[in-house]
Write a structure and sequence with these properties.
165 residues; globular; alpha+beta; three-stranded mixed sheet; 10 strands
């Protein structure tokens, strides 16, 4: 998909961290959904992709990263420099080259919204092997041209991109 998911299905719009499927408005504002899509906790992300699509695994994310040639993969995956905070990401000459159109929707940690305009976080379906309450995600941020992998609580809110089966 070339946009962040905006699918709300039967999900509850959450205001706190939960182990039940919930979605959140980017930066706490419903108006941001149009440009940035929803933020999903992992439980909602696992069920948000339409039929014939799936939440990407760590392997899917690695394949995407390897398919984008050259340095500054994060810059190539990003789009809309007007929505990113000023940094090395959008100043790179390869910014937006891939058409993947990553936007900085930020995150929700169950208490506060963070990094809107600076970070784009995306869930992976791959659970963290050392603690079942966590799962992997990828992120791109405004002052770095790469793509970073990490893990977080499944109750946190991140963006979703789906991969065709």
């Amino acid at each position: 998909m070339a946009e962040n998911l905006r699918y709300s299905k039967d999900f509850v719009v959450g205001t706190a961290k939960s182990n039940k499927p919930q979605i959140y408005y980017p930066n706490g504002n419903q108006k941001n959904v149009q440009d940035f899509g929803y933020l999903y906790n992992w439980y909602a992300a696992e069920n948000a992709c339409p039929n014939g699509w799936h939440l990407p695994t760590n392997s899917d994310w690695k394949q995407l990263k390897n398919a984008v040639s050259g340095d500054n993969v994060g810059s190539q995956l990003a789009a809309r420099p007007d929505l990113w905070n000023d940094g090395t990401l959008e100043r790179n000459s390869s910014f937006g080259r891939s058409g993947f159109s990553v936007l900085p929707a930020g995150s929700f940690d169950g208490k506060a919204y963070g990094n809107f305009g600076s970070f784009a976080y995306f869930w992976s379906s791959t659970e963290y092997e050392y603690y079942s309450g966590n799962a992997y995600y990828r992120y791109i941020y405004y002052n770095y041209g790469g793509v970073v992998s990490n893990y977080s609580s499944k109750g946190d809110g991140f963006s979703v991109r789906c991969v065709k089966d």
